[in-house]
Design brief:
Two copies of one chain form a homodimer. The first copy, chain A, is an alpha/beta fold. The first copy, chain A, contains six helices and nine strands, in the order E-E-E-H-E-H-E-E-H-E-H-E-H-E-H. The first copy, chain A, has a single domain (8-238), classed as Aldolase class I (TIM Barrel), CATH 3.20.20. At the A-B interface, strand 1, helix 5, strand 9 and helix 6 of A face strand 1, helix 5, strand 9 and helix 6 of B. The complex binds iron/sulfur cluster (2 copies). The site of one iron/sulfur cluster has 12 residues of chain B, from loops.
Chain lengths: 244, 244
């Protein structure tokens, strides 16, 4: 760690596994999950990153220490790392990690709700911006999101907007987001409304049923034409298990 | 139909629905399924396109007639059409359809095993080349596939190689394909070994189990680093039902 490099608060490093969501769905990747979020979505499936319940598990790590841990876990089997949270865009120092990963020939993915901008976001290869619909209980700051999108305008990232949809209101919100950013690829994802159940099979079928509902809604819509509709693969596979 | 325009043998036109496979997984799209194939894969899930069982359903349609049918079915709800088969690359006249769709502002996807080249393939927006592994019973003509790939070198298509994997041999075949075309994105897809069962739930669970097997194999492999591993979404949702 150089003197000016502040550590990154990390809650989980795991993989390789498949990315279960978004445009990069199915991608073989390692995950680095940072601590802390400026939101508190009602259905957050990573609330341990911000509700204090896992605060004793947070490690303060330098970019190099994160890389060392990734290599211990993944050896030579990976070329993609996803930075997730919480909201990693709260952390200025992720920039050191992104540079280090790029130096090692690794593609980097990021998941954030788009409530903050960091310079290093322009260097992310696979960028998923997931503004939160009404069912989350959060209010989107559209001007802030405009600013993030404007900053990304000239980047060569693969960018998508991902909206998790639980109900009709969420779907209307997705339409609104799509109209505001018509040139950004849109991914709609069916929401998991039971983030604690251990009944894996029951959960998988509930999700497939809701997925079919979402597909039916979107297929009938002339507002949503250029769009992908996806389930969460990891939830279909592993239910609510952490670290897979 | 202009005098030089020969009709296209079409077996199904349906949608809008979600693309269940490949890099375009989840994409809202219409499907045009052509008749005829130069292969006869042991596990073909569209064997009615070539085994004679649906030969009375084949319609000889011009590009314009196909477009009219797409509009009747999909109205203003779609901007993406997937041409599937059978092997549409047997048909020179698909070129008329691709041009007409582009004129209408539609993105065009194609699925083919890569055994034939047609000029119009360079114009396809989302191109899935799916060479068939040993379990199919087919033998890949690698020189022919090299030629197809060479012809696509300067196109701005989104191209991927998709290999359906049933067993270890198939996985080795995928590694071989990946080494031969290292710069083309690779998608591995778990195979559906029961293309007739009507037990939708049983099939979904069998597929999720095989998907987990495939994930485990690929995650441990240092030959397969930059790769996506996916299930067939439509089979998880609708089992072996046709036309969804
Ligand atoms: S933005 Fe993401 S991590 Fe933060 S509370 Fe919402 S779902 Fe959870
Ligand atoms: S190439 Fe495709 S359509 Fe032709 S036999 Fe094989 S699986 Fe069926």
């Amino acid at each position: 760690m150089t003197s000016k490099e502040k550590p990154i608060p990390v809650l989980e490093i795991f993989g390789p596994t498949v990315q279960g969501e978004g445009l990069v769905i199915g991608q073989k990747t390692m995950f680095v999950r940072t601590a802390g979020c400026d939101y508190s979505c009602s259905w957050c499936d990573s609330s341990f990153t911000w509700d204090g319940s896992a605060k004793n598990e947070i490690k303060q790590l330098s970019a190099q220490m994160i890389w060392d841990e990734l290599k211990i876990l993944g050896g030579n089997t990976f070329e993609h790392v996803t930075i997730s949270g919480g909201n990693p865009a709260l952390l200025k120092n992720i920039g050191y990690l992104v540079n280090l990963l790029h130096d090692q020939g690794i593609r980097v993915g990021l998941e954030t709700q788009g409530s903050r901008w960091q310079e290093w976001m322009a260097d992310i290869d696979d960028l998923t911006i997931s503004p939160k619909p009404p069912s989350s209980g959060m209010i989107t700051d559209w001007e802030k999101l405009d600013e993030v999108m404007e900053n990304l305008k000239n980047s060569s990232n693969e960018i998508c907007i991902k909206v998790v949809v639980f109900d009709e209101d969420d779907l209307q919100y997705a339409v609104q987001a799509h109209k505001r950013y018509p040139h950004i690829r849109l991914v709609l994802q069916v929401g998991n409304s039971d983030v604690t159940t251990l009944d894996r099979e029951g959960l998988a079928f509930a999700l497939l049923e809701k997925y079919e509902w979402l597909i039916n809604q979107v297929m009938a819509s002339s507002d949503l034409r250029q769009v992908k509709v996806l389930p969460q693969l990891h939830t279909l596979l592993w239910g609510n298990k952490r670290g897979v």
